[in-house]
Amino acid sequence: MIQSISCDMSPAFINGILSEFPNAKITFDKFHVIKIMSEAVDDIRKQEQSSIKELKNSKYLWLKNEGNLSEKQKERFLDLKNQNLKTVRAYNVKLSLQEFWNSKNRKEATQYLKKWYFWATNNRLTPITEAANTVKKHWDGMLNYFDSKINNGILEGINSIVQLQKRNARSFKNVQCFINIIYLKLGKLKFELPT
């Protein structure tokens, strides 16, 4: 019997799981939760860039983790981060939510999430407050991570490979050829010529 399922927060997925797997606990995937927060940060950046020109063309600085920035991006990011910007406040709320998954257990995670939610909803940044309310609606599914420890990582990786093959599939004669290529790519088969 399936006991745990990981998915994003799409109502269609949730309803399908509740309908077809009524005994399974839903675990909401970290990537999709953080994506909601990233979109809120970007909304604030867009609003603020009309009056603060330095924020123009900085979208990806706020979406990436700081450790994944190039040296040039890090310099620009630090300059922006040291300013008193709404975007910086929003970014810090997002970073704080990422720490939730580092909690040791469900009890500690619950306390962390309560404190985070209070901070996120009292910051006077409407997109962040709305994103925090979405998190609150999916609270139990996020906390289920500490019981199941599952996520969508492997599935998302497979999906990206399939999407790449789909873009390259312009010359396939039929769907079966496309399916065969997907199996070949995902199977990681090694074809070696005899020596």
Short description:
With 195 residues, this protein is mainly alpha-helical.
Protein described:
The protein is mainly alpha-helical and 195 residues long. The protein has two domains: 4-148, no CATH class; 153-187. It is 64% helix and 4% strand. It has eleven helices and two strands, in the order βαβαααααααααα. It has a two-stranded parallel sheet. Helix 2 packs antiparallel against helix 7 (126-137). The longest helix has 20 residues, at 30-49. The relative contact order is 0.13.
Name a few traits of the molecule:
195 residues, mainly alpha, 2 domains, two-stranded parallel ribbon, 11 helices, 2 strands
Shape: globular
Strand order of the largest sheet: 1-2
Q: Please, how many domains? A: 2
Structural class, by secondary structure, is mainly alpha
Helix-residue proportion: 55-70%
List low-pLDDT spans: none
Q: List the total number of helices.
A: 11
Distance between the termini: 48 Å
Taken in chain order, the helices and strands follow as EHEHHHHHHHHHH
